[in-house]
């Protein structure tokens, strides 16, 4: 019986994924080339702000931490780390993209022929809300998750689909592309966030309150070893199996599969509440500020009209 630090036996590539790091670095280089050097080639282009650049770098570090660092290997060993991935990538990194990517670049992306119809779905907020939560729930049906864990291409494709749907889900409340008059009101945006949390609750509750482990890829030795091929080079894994070093996730932890599963559901729910609390705070203060600005504008116009009326009255005295 080992511990979580024993994942070092899988080697450097499995634990630190230099290929994924190269992808993240490539995306970052392209981002900064566009926003620092080529922004003048875009309609409405402007220099990148420090806040946008900082948020983007933070997002890329988190993305690598979730899918490139040891967290990814651990997500195939413990369900709790899998749910940590889900929460951070789909409920934190996705909405941060609306603060990291300038509005002129978002407008260019949304107007691309391939994506224009996709983002048009977000004009009816109920649709992306149901789509993301529906696909997320389907993904965590035991037979579906166990199947996807044995096919690297389908598993990656499903995660990309979920990320795109999470972007779509947050579009109605954070996008800077649509004119302000077409946005939902501040109160409706707050209710929208509550609705996301409410729709995520059944899947989390099923996982937390299940009386037995639901996923064979975290309990059955053969299924688990097959699933590990998604993140561990086959040569390394075959060598470890041949030596009889590992037979299942119990080698790395004393946590029971049921406790691990329940912990995963709790992590998802708690992180969702934390992330959404910040979103609600941001939206509330933005709504309050806009309402105050509207009140100030009404007051200013009333004072101006009173002044003009007084001047007109004085002319005829």
UniProtKB/TrEMBL annotation:
<feature type="transmembrane region" description="Helical">
    <location>
        <begin position="126"/>
        <end position="145"/>
    </location>
</feature>
<feature type="transmembrane region" description="Helical">
    <location>
        <begin position="186"/>
        <end position="210"/>
    </location>
</feature>
<dbReference type="InterPro" id="IPR019108">
    <property type="entry name" value="Caa3_assmbl_CtaG-rel"/>
</dbReference>
<feature type="transmembrane region" description="Helical">
    <location>
        <begin position="16"/>
        <end position="34"/>
    </location>
</feature>
<dbReference type="Pfam" id="PF09678">
    <property type="entry name" value="Caa3_CtaG"/>
</dbReference>
<feature type="transmembrane region" description="Helical">
    <location>
        <begin position="55"/>
        <end position="78"/>
    </location>
</feature>
<keyword id="KW-0812">Transmembrane</keyword>
<feature type="transmembrane region" description="Helical">
    <location>
        <begin position="157"/>
        <end position="174"/>
    </location>
</feature>
<protein>
    <submittedName>
        <fullName>Cytochrome c oxidase assembly factor CtaG</fullName>
    </submittedName>
</protein>
<keyword id="KW-1133">Transmembrane helix</keyword>
<feature type="transmembrane region" description="Helical">
    <location>
        <begin position="266"/>
        <end position="285"/>
    </location>
</feature>
<keyword id="KW-0472">Membrane</keyword>
<dbReference type="InterPro" id="IPR014108">
    <property type="entry name" value="Caa3-assmbl_CtaG"/>
</dbReference>
<keyword id="KW-1003">Cell membrane</keyword>
<feature type="transmembrane region" description="Helical">
    <location>
        <begin position="84"/>
        <end position="106"/>
    </location>
</feature>
């Amino acid at each position: 019986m080992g511990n979580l630090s024993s994942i070092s036996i899988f080697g450097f590539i499995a634990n630190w994924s230099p290929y994924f790091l190269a992808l993240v670095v490539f995306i970052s280089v392209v981002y900064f080339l566009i926003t620092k050097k080529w922004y003048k080639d875009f309609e409405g282009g402007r220099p990148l702000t420090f806040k946008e650049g900082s948020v983007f770098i933070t997002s890329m570090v988190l993305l690598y931490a979730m899918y490139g660092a040891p967290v990814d290997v651990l997500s195939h060993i413990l369900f709790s780390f899998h749910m940590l991935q889900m929460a951070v990538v789909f409920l934190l990194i996705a909405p941060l993209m609306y603060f990291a990517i300038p509005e002129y670049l978002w407008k260019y992306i949304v107007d691309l022929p391939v994506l224009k119809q996709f983002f048009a779905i977000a004009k009816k907020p109920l649709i992306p809300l149901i789509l993301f939560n529906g696909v997320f729930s389907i993904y965590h049906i035991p037979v579906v998750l166990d199947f996807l864990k044995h096919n690297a291409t389908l598993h990656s494709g499903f995660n990309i689909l979920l990320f795109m749907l999470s972007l779509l889900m947050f579009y109605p409340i954070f996008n800077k592309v649509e004119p302000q008059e077409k946005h939902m009101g501040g109160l409706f945006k707050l209710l929208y966030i509550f609705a996301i949390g409410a729709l995520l609750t059944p899947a989390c509750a099923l996982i937390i309150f299940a009386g037995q482990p639901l996923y064979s890829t975290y309990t059955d030795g053969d299924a688990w070893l097959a699933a590990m091929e998604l993140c561990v080079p086959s040569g390394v894994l075959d060598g470890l199996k041949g030596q009889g070093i590992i037979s299942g996730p119990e080698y790395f932890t004393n946590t029971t599969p049921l406790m691990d599963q329940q912990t995963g559901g709790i992590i998802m729910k708690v992180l969702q509440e934390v992330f959404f609390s910040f979103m609600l705070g941001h939206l509330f203060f933005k709504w309050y500020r806009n309402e105050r600005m509207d009140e100030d504008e009404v007051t200013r116009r009333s004072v101006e009209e009173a002044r003009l009326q007084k001047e007109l009255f004085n002319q005829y005295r």
